[in-house]
Known about the structure:
Strand content of chain B: 5-15%
Strand content of chain A: 15-25%
Order of helices and strands of chain A: HEHEHEHHEHEHEEEHEEHEHEHH
CATH architecture of chain B: 3-Layer(aba) Sandwich
Number of domains of chain A: 2
Low-confidence stretches of chain B: none
Largest sheet of chain A: 7 strands, mixed
Number of strands of chain B: 7
Oligomer: heterodimer
Shape of chain A: globular
CATH topology of the largest domain in chain A: Rossmann fold
Amino acid sequence: MRNAFINTLEKEANKNRNILLLTGDLGFTVFENFQKKFSKRFFNMGVAEANMMSIAAGLALSGKIPFVYSIAPFIALRAYEQIRNDVCMHNANVKIIGVGGGLVYTHAGPTHHIAEDLAVMRVLPKMTVIAPIDPIEVRLAIPQILKKKGPAYLRLAKKGEPHLHQGKIKFEIGKGIIIKKGKDICLITCGPIAYNTLKAAFLLDKEKISTAVVSMHTIKPLDTNLLENLTKKYKAIFTVEEHSVIGGLGGAVAEFLAENLRKNLIFKRIGLNDCFCHEIGDYDFLRKIYNLSAQKIAKTIIRSLKKHE
Amino acid sequence: MRTLNQSIVKDLENKAQQIRKLILEISHKAQVGHIGSALSIADILAVLYFKILRINPKKPKWNLRDRFILSKGHAVAALYSTLFLKGFFTKKILLSYCQNKGFLGEHPEHRVLGVELTTGSLGHGLSVGLGMALSAKIDKKHYQTFILISDAECNEGEVWQAALTASHHRLDNLIVIIDYNKVQALGTTREVLNLEPFYAKWEAFGWNVFEVDGHNIAQMLETFTKVQTLKLKVQNKKPTVIIAHTIRGKGISFMENKLEWHYFTTNDKQYRKAVKELES
């Protein structure tokens, strides 16, 4: 995803000289080419995220389009008030790139994980919040956030995420994409956990529960039209995200559903359950522990459906 | 050093007194505090707005305008009074300060013409201004960015992050003025979180440092002239900080250096007394 991001940004930077890249001293083996190509538009701002974010706002208020990059917890939380006051209050054209969404930074531990960014970004007025499910969506999201003036938060994972879309897709901010069809239930997901979600859907199909999967890459603005259709079509809806079940995609969908009640609709949020992850292990290991492997996701869904039988 | 035109100084002193009167008037009408902080910067704003800043109230978004950020946003009564005197908006708008349905609130907001940045939370203005200065460097534009910060604001870590960054990027188009009145919300700066040696700190961070009496207009004019001269020196290329020694509540005897005038509002008797002092 990082490579998809930087390659796309390079292409856009060729076309638009106002694009700048600011990093909080991160991006080893990622930014070298950009730096070489656009030496006057690349700024390593040091390990000073709050300052970097305010500077980005000042640059944007002077006509620039800064992309501000760091590991997600550092950029989303350390610089939060700067994002709120300097970026969002001024509707400044700052694009925030948080890398390592969820548990991606495995052994680095809970300081480097993040399960809160979608929640805190989503609550900010003017902010667009996107968590692409694969590198293809990353590539398509960049030109879109450039087209939409104003603040945006793009949550990336890291590297090696599988391509989940097949063939040509239409990517629009605020428009979910059906990535797998199904008749009985629907899983709504964002970020690369979509891969396990998709695998879970195939497992459920085998259990004779025909399962659809939607990439809700944009958490804000939420695709409420699509949601409304989904609630009409399916008896159960599940959200799956590598984020706290509080306030993120699941929170956003729950808010919509609470105000648009449909009788007998089964709904459950699957994600990290209000916890810090202190376990040590690789990515698959951690996802399994936190019930986010394909098997565990499928199991949770089956259990939930049974409960409502 | 060239002799400063006495009439310019006189005129600016006069402007500062007008700013002070307006601060008292709108704060009294609205029964809103922070009067001491606003009076502290009246002379600085008079010098900046009526002599130094290249701005045009008729073209408030002019591309090449100098940028000014009041980072200590709670002193906005001084800024709004100044912007009114400069012609950015009408007296009616000024008098809407903190009134129901009013246009002006207790901290600067970007939606008001002439205000570059919404402030109120301390520590942001210098970094945002730095971004504006950096943008000018990238585009080879010749505007300058001025940021007025408070002494207590230097308790914020972001200020020192910005101090490092500005000198690292050799932003000689960035000028910071510190309103060093040495009183903060719950005590003196020495009691709360000591800033001294203040001059040495900024110098060590790689800045040109000047100290002035923030109520001595002639001295401030001289200093700004020196700053411009420094800017022309190729080998300098440093950002500049002007530590302005000021008195909180300056100009009103019963408010000067009194911590409580961070909070108090004037009653009718106090208001009349204050105005009388300014007129005498």
